[in-house]
Description:
Layout: E1 2-5, H1 11-21, H2 34-43, E2 48-53, E3 56-66, H3 77-81, E4 95-103, H4 112-127, E5 131-137, H5 149-157, H6 166-171, E6 175-180, E7 193-198
Parallel strand pairs: 4-5
Antiparallel strand pairs: 1-2, 2-3, 3-4, 5-7, 6-7
The structure holds coenzyme A.
The site of coenzyme A has 22 residues, from β4, α4, β5 and α6.
Amino acid sequence: MIVRPYTVADLPGLLTIxxxxxxxxxxxxxxxxxxxxxxxxxxxxxxxxxxxxxxALLASATALIxxxxxxxxxxxxxxxxxxxxxxxxxxxxxxxxxIDMAVRPAWRGRGLARMLYQARFDLVRRLGLDRFLAGSRLxxxxxxxxLTPEAYAVEVAAGRLVDPVITPQMRAGLRPxxxxxxxxxxVESGHAALLMEWIx
Length: 200
Ligand SMILES: CC(C)(COP(=O)(O)OP(=O)(O)OC[C@H]1O[C@@H](n2cnc3c(N)ncnc32)[C@H](O)[C@@H]1OP(=O)(O)O)[C@@H](O)C(=O)NCCC(=O)NCCS
């Protein structure tokens, strides 16, 4: 199993990952399109990563560099990711920002996300950046709708509830820093996210 940069030639494998990892009700129009993949590879190839095993793609993760001001943490996925085209990438920024990570269901729970986070942390160190950030949707909120998304986020951050996205990130070393209402169009997460941080 290797972590390597993905290219436009990986499009079929990347699409398989997207369709398996983001089924309905997640909006299919948010799955990667060819032009977006081309843009990731063109603007910041070091942030476009996948895990491959014997020619098959098992997982992918995409990131860009942004100028982040900790006093102003609020943003949406659309704004930070330029709708997935990474026009917001700045080589001179201070923060590596993850806009997507997906591991195919059959390969989950085997440390692939951990491998991809380690590759991102290595990149932060190599480029001398201040931090890694990710806006992480509250994927399990729809099972706890007796709570507001914010109250659910507090419970997950405190370790009293388990979320399928936030909890693995906490296990991999990220820490919640801000609640982001209206982060992404996603009914399962009440459209909300937690901003997760790792500092080198
Ligand atoms: C979230 C996701 C990337 C995790 O990938 P993964 O390869 O299964 O994660 P790992 O095996 O590296 O697990 C990392 C840690 O989290 C834990 N973990 C993984 N899935 C978990 C879950 N559903 N609930 C609780 N803990 C979990 C693992 O036990 C591990 O901790 P440990 O090493 O201390 O035991 C994967 O479930 C996924 O692709 N989900 C759908 C797409 C998505 O929503 N992506 C994020 C938003 S873009």
